Amino acid sequence: MGIYKKSEIVVLASLLLVFLFVATPVLASLRPFPQQPRVRGEQTATPSADQEDESEQEGEQARGKFEKHLGEAKLRVCEKLEDTINNRSDHLLDRVNKHIARFDRISSKVQTFYTEKMVPKGINVENYETLVGNIATKKAAAVEAAANAAATIDDFDCSGDSPGQALADFHDQMHVVIKALKEYKKSVVDLIVAVRTAFNNSKETRQATSSAN
């Protein structure tokens, strides 16, 4: 084992001091961030908090997958029923239009009977024009309601944003159609009753006159 000279020890000590003086700030600069003084009461992140964040993210991902699968399942069910829904709605609208046409034919026959058979004989209905005007108004309302229902179901599409809402709107619109049809029917019935009453009253009057003679 060699023995170091005193001068060599001094040189080594000097080099060590120089190294420490130079290397310390260099090593400090290699740290990602300077160490901040810790504030009293401040809590550092713990592994349990990180685990909770990961669990929450996993839960959100699971919910997202579930909602995606649920949406795909609803789409498949909707597509299977789409033809049935369209056929059913077309059938309902066809029935509505047939009812409108039927009421229109009956109204036309009553008006023809009144103008051709009763008026020439002097048999009149006082509010005839009002009754006929009411029929025209109610018919227009029924036709408009049916057209709106048809337009609503045309928006139905399983791949759309809200096919369920389109069906709900069609359901609500059909209630409007049914109400309009009932009012249209009533207006025609009102005309029939008025014409028949006037005709029967005139018939009784003629019979009474004949008996008196």
Number of helices: 4
Beta-strand portion reads: under 5%
The topology string of helices and strands comes to HHHH
* N-end to C-end Cα span: 168 Å
Concise description?
The chain is 81% helix and 0% strand. With 213 residues, the protein is mainly alpha-helical. The chain has a domain at 83-202.
Topology:
Blueprint: H1 6-29, H2 47-118, H3 128-154, H4 163-212
Helix pairs in contact: 2-3, 2-4, 3-4
Can you walk me through this structure?
Residues 37-64 are annotated as: Disordered. With 213 residues, the chain is mostly helical. Helix content is 81%, strand content 0%. The chain is rod-shaped and about 105 Å long.
Keywords, please?
single chain, mainly alpha
